[in-house]
Amino acid sequence: MELDDTDRAILRILQEDARTPFSEIARRIDMSSATVHDRVGRMEDAGVIEGYHASVNAKAVGYGVSALVGLRVEQGREEDALERLREIEGVREIHLTTGEWDVILRVVAEDTDRLRDLMFDRIANMDGFSRSQTMIILGTDYEVEGPPI
Known about the structure:
By secondary structure, this protein is of the alpha+beta class. It folds into two domains: 5-45, Arc Repressor Mutant, subunit A (Orthogonal Bundle); 60-137, Alpha-Beta Plaits (2-Layer Sandwich), CATH 3.30.70.920. The chain contains five helices and four strands, in the order αααβαββαβ. It has a four-stranded antiparallel beta sheet with strand order 2-3-1-4. α2 packs across α3. The two termini are 14 Å apart. The mean pLDDT is 93. It comes from Halorubrum glutamatedens. GO terms for molecular function: DNA binding. InterPro entries: ArsR-like_HTH, AsnC-type_HTH_dom, Dimeric_a/b-barrel, Tscrpt_reg_AsnC-like, Tscrpt_reg_AsnC/Lrp_C, WH-like_DNA-bd_sf, WH_DNA-bd_sf. This is Lrp/AsnC family transcriptional regulator.
């Protein structure tokens, strides 16, 4: 789907707050609510907008530690390893990568003791992985959801 400037303006507003009413979007871009509704529907149908979600503060719900985990996957074990990683509650993202690590995870845990348990009991000793490195995230300076629009 080819996006025009109006579509991009709508997407920017929805990325800031997906709950913005169509009437407010329409007012901000000087367009009718019906037109905004039609354009959003078209972008949903085309797969440009994949869904809407609530952004939950992990610390506020008891997950005070986040970490990135680099994993080296043994050749031929990729699908099985990825499937098992998806089943682990603290795993929030799984990225297939090039370079030193085959997979990089973002994980969350209640505290460093639970992170240690997650790493040693659930991930590092899992069959199919030959190496791992855990990097605790001390803070996030900048984060943007989705591509630049």
